[in-house]
Write a structure and sequence with these properties.
alpha+beta, five-stranded antiparallel beta sheet, about 35% helix, globular, binds flavin-adenine dinucleotide
Length: about 500
Amino acid sequence: MDPAVLDDTPEMIHNIPQPALEQELSNFIAKDPNITLIKGFSIHGVEQTEDEVVATIEERSTGNLHQTKSRHLIACDGRRSKVRELLGIESESEDSDQTMMTIHFNANLRPVVGDRVGMLYWIMDPIAAGFIIGYDLDGIQVHISKVDVEQHPVESWTEYMCRAKICGAIGKDDVPFDIVSYRPWVFRRQVAFSFQKGNIFLAGDAAHSFPPTGGLGLNCGLADVHNLAYKIALVHRGVATPSILSTYTAERRGVADSYSKQSVKNGKEIFALLQSLKTAGVEDVVQARKNMMAAFADPAQRTQVEAGIEGQREHFDNLELHIGYVYGDTKPPAHASHYSPKFLPGARLPHAWISFPGQPSPETEAAKRFLLPQKPVDVSYVKELDMGQVRACQWSTLDLCGPDFWTLVWGQEQEIPHITLLQKHCDMIGARLNIWRLGVDFEIVRQSWFADELVNGGGVLIRPDQHILARVSAETNGEEDLIVEVNKHLGISKC
Ligand SMILES: Cc1cc2nc3c(=O)[nH]c(=O)nc-3n(C[C@H](O)[C@H](O)[C@H](O)COP(=O)(O)OP(=O)(O)OC[C@H]3O[C@@H](n4cnc5c(N)ncnc54)[C@H](O)[C@@H]3O)c2cc1C
């Protein structure tokens, strides 16, 4: 692990098999009294008026139709979204003629990889060229490879062929494994032109789908609803007008578009690397291996292979994509791996490790602490850190932002008229504002650049989804500027 990543994000990238994540989410929502989970129904139709959505759903076991009414509806019904189809929302898409095969298999790969523990393993041997996503090295793995449909049409694939492929990928005959499933798919990306029609929203793969080369699909879907949920909540509470909801497509579509393009690019980089090994299209495995070894031995070809290997970096090292984007900025990131924290409106609040000075004795302090997550971050799983370092990495600036709150992180001790006015305004319109002052309520533990930004720039006003709404500065902002920004975002006129 690279502990330096913890300067950019409080959590290392976590590699969780999708079924395990879905189970975890299922357990979580089962405990939430606000959520009713009903299974075994399919969406059949949707109609909407200005303030009501009526969904017709079909009970799969009986074929009976039922209706549900709601003010808003979020369609997370996957890549082939029926709701998207019913709404007639078209997508921008890019097809390729590359057919891929995903093979899910169960195996204990630990004896094979030894201490080279990773998430992704590139298989260069022509017998199984492609890559393995090692979700759980003791169990579930996914092998993805390109299919030569001329030689091996997808209909001709059998479990026996998959076994031969996985055996070749593992490279040993004595590692037992089971084939769980295998599924062909076409390498393509697709992004809906709009993620909203009236009071119905598309989220996740229903809005955008792209190849898994980059691990961006689910993360993108989660960020969609992170963006949307607080906006819907503010409308329901009467704090914002419905115009705030139109910022959803405006903000999320560009991010999904750049994810989709990067995922395609990552896939192409893999094909290019395999091409440079001179094995592509060579059916005779012995000959293909000879070609590969000759490519390694030739200095010019080897340079090409090495460049191809470096070209895989953005596939797995892509923090700039995950947390470096800025809503409103239409430029795609220059390099997925080159993350930089940004104190710009639209950017996600940068992470820095913080601590809380003294005892939380005053009532206000206690109240603020109450808003913090119940448990601090625990980075003890990062073996490179000693106990002192683990203790210093417990709270992040991101923890200052409660999901239901606007947050002002302020770099100076004294109050200024901006803050007093903003607080009054938020109280009046029913928006909850929480103010944290550097040096009074919290301290920066490690990343001094964060403190410099606050002291030099004053502060940042943060939306409930942890994205910056505005920079605050006693020198550059007029006293009412912050209120104007808040009102603009909420779609309300001056009170
Ligand atoms: C091999 C592979 C590896 C991947 N690895 C990663 C990764 O590392 N990181 C990452 O972020 N993403 C990854 N992804 C992408 C990720 O799996 C998807 O982006 C994610 O599952 C999308 O979630 P979703 O809820 O939007 O859609 P889905 O997971 O497709 O769920 C849609 C749901 O809607 C239901 N549904 C469908 N039609 C209807 C209907 N008519 N009525 C009612 N319900 C319906 C379905 O039953 C399903 O439950 C990977 C994908 C693959 C294939």
